[in-house]
Write a sequence for this structure.
């Protein structure tokens, strides 16, 4: 991922100023928050909520005054919209609401991530445990990955959400939402005139990590691919502004490149499954030896692609007797 910590200003075709506020959510992981000078003044995303990230977010407002002469502070934010329920985008909501008293909104499928945070974390962690247990990964590694999955989330305190939305205009103002599940159940892209805030749905260089729908509903490669195709139909977009990395002057080309990337990864997965393999085997074949959190990301990405192929009858489980006789056996797959 390319990190760019430069404050930037954009103007929509309707004359609305937009500022990119890049915040280092975690070490070497920059999240782009966006300040939309609509009525009400709206902040899109908050980064992680770590003390250092909160300080950087506040400092961005000082930077706006110094670089662009914008007489705006965090306390002037009247509305806070979270693009999707991942901690590097919503973790700072308590800080922002405390400083500004802004109304907090998120897509209805991700509202429980903020309102019932511990419950959602426990349920998804249980499903992740089941996925890893049947993946063929050695059991001693499973426990370590489950702990890694929680490391950045333990400090978040749940809070009520003021409003939720689905498709269409978001409350007051000019922002329009497009529900684009896949990377996250409640992922949305938000349109402002000829600008599309793509969050993590479309990024300028990388493709967002995928996760099996068996872990969390409304994720999965199937939903993601369909959402990419749907967002291609949105016309009149001059620029795409992602939740990470750079702006995209040719959004359609970037979407097509992302679709091609996943087609290639599906073909590589199928090629590896000419012989029987577990998810863990295929992950090592696709990504080689990884370290720390990247092991989990590789497993989730592999699982999402194998789930996609399995649901479409391209691969099948070969160890049927174990599936019949054991509660949660390691699953072995092969190309059909």
């Amino acid at each position: 991922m390319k990190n760019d910590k430069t404050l930037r200003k954009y103007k929509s075709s309707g004359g609305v100023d937009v500022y990119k506020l890049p915040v280092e959510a975690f070490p070497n992981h920059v999240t782009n928050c966006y300040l939309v000078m609509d009525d009400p003044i709206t902040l899109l995303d908050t980064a992680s909520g770590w003390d250092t990230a909160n300080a950087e977010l506040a400092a961005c407002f000082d930077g706006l005054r110094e670089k662009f002469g914008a007489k705006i502070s965090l306390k002037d934010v009247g509305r806070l919209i979270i693009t999707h329920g991942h901690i590097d985008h919503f973790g700072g909501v308590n800080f922002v609401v405390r400083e500004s008293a802004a109304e907090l909104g998120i897509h209805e499928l991700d509202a429980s991530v903020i309102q019932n945070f511990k419950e959602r974390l426990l349920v998804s962690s249980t499903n992740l445990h089941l996925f890893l247990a049947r993946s063929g990964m050695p059991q001693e590694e499973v426990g370590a990955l489950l702990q890694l999955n929680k490391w950045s989330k333990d400090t978040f305190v749940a809070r009520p959400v003021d409003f939720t939305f689905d498709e269409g205009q978001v409350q007051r103002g000019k922002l329009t939402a497009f529900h684009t599940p896949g990377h996250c159940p409640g992922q949305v892209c938000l349109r402002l005139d000829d600008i599309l805030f793509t969050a993590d749905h479309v990024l300028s260089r990388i493709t967002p990590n995928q996760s099996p729908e068996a872990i969390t509903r409304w994720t999965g490669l199937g939903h993601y691919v369909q959402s990419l195709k749907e967002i291609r139909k949105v016309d009149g977009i001059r620029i795409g502004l992602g939740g990470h990395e750079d702006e995209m002057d040719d959004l359609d080309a970037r979407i097509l490149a992302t679709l091609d990337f996943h087609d290639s990864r599906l073909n590589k997965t199928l090629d590896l499954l000419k012989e029987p393999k577990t998810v863990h085997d295929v992950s090592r074949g696709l990504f080689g030896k990884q370290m720390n959190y990247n092991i989990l990301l590789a497993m989730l990405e592999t699982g999402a692609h194998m789930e996609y192929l399995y649901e479409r009858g391209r691969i099948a489980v070969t160890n049927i007797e174990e599936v019949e006789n054991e509660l949660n056996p390691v699953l072995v797959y092969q190309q059909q």
